[in-house]
Write a structure and sequence with these properties.
Elements (H helix, E strand, L loop, with lengths): L4 H57 L2 H14 L3 E8 L4 E6 L12 E7 L2 E10 L3 E3 L7 E3 L4 E11 L1 H51 L16 H72 L3 H4 L1 H28 L8 E4 H18 L3 E4 L5 E4 L1 H18 L4 E9 L2 E8 L33 H12 L3 E6 L3 E9 L29 E5 L3 H13 L3 E5 L2 H10 L6 E5 L8 H12 L3 E6 L4 H10 L2 E4 L4 H15 L1
Parallel strand pairs: 9-11, 15-16, 15-17, 17-18, 18-19
Antiparallel strand pairs: 1-2, 1-7, 3-4, 4-7, 5-6, 8-10, 11-12, 12-14, 13-14
Length: 640
């Protein structure tokens, strides 16, 4: 509710005084009303006690006339007396006067001011036979006492509260009248005083508003005297100064804007250059990191690991963290450098969710969590790979931060949109942090930067990918209960499957350390470190390895072998004119049905499309050893 300045001044001056006056009036009225009722109670108690003392002999002697006179005198003594009665020990009424209703009396007991109804007080006083000591002149001075005091009856007196209520109403009316008159007088005085302040302030407010709208000709009428005369002069002087400096300010703003634009362009060029550099260097970074991961995996299964298991575990953790950090940084750089162009098309969402369940079910099982993915027949229109990457990050994040319970992935319709939700039973997210978590390197509850809890880039990448697809993304959470991350995708009509784009089923993402391999694997890799790392890892897993650096050596190894390899691992980039895809197709033509797994440090959209059309699975370096082992086991099982 908007109030004028004059109204506010009046309220400021009037409310405190009015509030104090009302409170004092209420206190005094309550005190006066309480005194009236307390006085009535005191009189009623005194009358009942006096009648009790006077009625003792009458009850004892059975003189009903004297008792009736006693009850009549009670009505004459107090004008508020409504009735009086005397009853004997058996409850029989001996004498009564006034308008009494014995059926409404409570059980006989000493009662001072028992309220029978809204306007009647009942006083009950027992009549006792006094106990008098008797001196025994023949018993050596000992005192013989009479029988103990005995209740021989009761005196009942009813007093009316109507007179008290009437006086209370008159007191309240007088108090309200005084309060209203005081408030009216105070309001009149406050208004007279406030007008001398509010009128100039209202004028100043109007002039300042006009100046704010750009009317620099607005001026206050400067009074010849008064406390607010300096204010009027100051406002007029301010308008003059604003008018004189406006052009200069515009010039400075234009110069500053030009400088900021230049700095922004320079920063954008630097960001693009950095992103291009990281993208170009990704191949050189991924190759040695891939080899390092394989060597560490081999070290973990060697005899040396038995002597230093913690050291090997720390090395493995450091390598995993480095791989995750490299992937995240390169993804961020690619997004910031506009290196990712979405390819919009229609696809069945159920296939994406099935792959999520296939890839992450073992990870959930290792953490003792339940991963449930509800099937859906919905088709959506977006970039399938980017949507899958977003959901993979969201589900992986939910599994990482959930200690007990599980994660649920579901899809439901909302108008012409498909709402995909990832539910978890984690610790939840405070309301103030629900936007902050989508920023780079932000993690809740990880001030020590424990890399086991992630790097703080997963949700930032998801937000960038969602913005790239122009889709909505958000989170709901209840601290202590869990969180729900969601994305909205446009619905699409169901289409026929593109058989040409369907290749081998993607291998599972993880495999337990206890799993072993049985078969011959041909590794075609030009990088000596990666080749040596793969050889050591596959041998440790129980497989047999044939190594080759190019097409000619690969064909030679296959011809020399007693039997063709069961699986061929080919790097897409090979020396010479033949790519890894071409070599894999040639190997299948010459040596029969041979399972193929492609790897590459630089996985472009064109390479992924070519691999999918050829029917080959493609993994991006650095490949975690567990993922590589799972892929080999999967391909061997499919071939068998």
């Amino acid at each position: 509710m908007n109030m004028t300045l004059r109204t506010r001044m009046l309220l400021l001056a009037l409310l405190p005084a009015t509030l104090v006056a009302v409170l004092l009036t209420v206190v005094f009225l309550l005190h006066a009303i309480d005194n009236l009722e307390q006085g009535l109670r005191t009189r009623g108690a005194a009358i009942s006690r006096q009648m009790s003392t006077a009625a003792e002999y009458g009850i004892f002697s059975g003189q009903r006339a004297s008792l009736s006179a006693l009850t009549d005198s009670a009505l004459r003594i107090d004008p508020d007396a409504r009735g009086a009665a005397i009853i004997d020990a058996d409850g029989v009424v001996i004498a009564r006067s006034g308008d009494l209703n014995p059926s409404s009396w409570p059980e006989l007991a000493r009662t001072e001011g028992y309220r029978l109804g809204p306007d009647v007080l009942l006083f009950v006083e027992p009549v006792t036979r006094s106990s008098l000591p008797v001196d025994d002149i023949y018993g050596g001075g000992e005192v013989a006492r009479a029988a103990e005091s005995k209740v021989v009856g009761h005196v009942l007196v009813e007093l009316s509260l109507r007179e008290v209520a009437g006086k209370s109403e008159r007191l309240i009316a007088a108090g309200v009248l005084i309060a209203v008159l005081g408030a009216a007088l105070g309001g009149w005085l406050a208004q007279r005083i406030a007008r001398g302040v509010t009128d100039p302030l209202l004028e100043a407010n109007e002039v300042v508003a006009r100046i704010g709208e750009g009317d620099l000709t607005a001026r206050m009428v400067t009074a010849s005297s008064g406390a607010l005369q300096p204010l009027a002069a100051g406002i007029n002087d301010m308008a003059e100064r604003i008018g004189l400096t406006q052009e200069d300010l515009r010039t400075r703003v234009a110069e500053a804007t030009l400088g900021l634009m230049r700095e922004k362009e320079a920063a954008e060029h630097a960001t693009v250059a950095k992103s291009h550099f990281l993208a170009s260097a990704s191949h050189d970074l991924r190759q040695p990191l891939h080899a390092l991961g394989l060597f560490v995996s081999g070290l973990a299964q060697s005899k040396a690991a038995k002597h230093e298991p913690k050291l090997v575990a720390h090395i493995q953790s450091a390598v995993d963290t480095l791989q995750n950090l490299l992937d995240a940084i390169l993804d961020i750089s690619r997004l910031d450098g506009d290196g990712l162009v979405p390819k919009i098309g229609s696809f069945p969402l159920g296939q994406v969710l099935d792959r999520l369940a296939n890839d992450l079910s073992l990870l959930a099982e290792q953490k003792g969590l339940q991963l449930k993915v509800r099937p859906t027949q919905a088709w959506v229109r977006s970039d399938q790979k980017i949507v899958e990457r977003i959901l993979l990050n969201l589900v992986g994040n939910a599994l990482r931060y959930t200690r007990a319970g599980g994660v649920l992935v579901s899809c439901r319709h909302r108008g012409d949109m498909a709402l995909v939700e990832v539910w978890d039973t984690g610790e939840g997210i405070p309301e103030h942090a629900r936007e902050e978590i989508f920023e780079d390197y932000v993690q809740l509850g990880n001030s020590e930067r424990d890399h086991a809890k992630g790097l703080g880039l997963g949700l930032a990448i998801c937000r960038r990918l969602a913005n790239l697809l122009s889709i909505q993304m958000g989170v709901r959470s209840r601290p202590g209960r869990g969180s729900v991350f969601w994305i909205e995708l446009p619905m699409a009509a169901q289409e026929a499957s593109d058989n040409a784009a369907v290749g081998q089923a993607p291998p599972p993402m993880y495999l337990p350390d206890s799993a072993s391999l049985s078969g011959t694997v041909l590794v075609v890799e030009s990088d000596a470190l990666v080749s040596a790392g793969m050889e050591q890892a596959i041998i440790n897993w129980g497989g047999r390895v044939l190594l080759a650096a190019d097409r000619e050596e690969a064909l030679h190894r296959c011809h020399e072998s007693d039997a063709p390899p069961d699986v061929a691992i080919c790097n897409i980039r090979l020396p010479g004119l033949v790519s890894g895809i071409g070599l894999a197709q040639e190997l299948q033509r010459e040596f029969g049905h041979m399972a193929v797994l492609l790897i590459s440090a630089d996985v472009s959209d064109e390479a992924q499309t070519a691999a999918r059309r050829a029917g080959f699975a493609l993994l991006k370096e650095p490949v975690p050893p567990g993922r590589l082992r799972a892929a080999l086991r999967h391909l061997l099982a499919v071939r068998a």
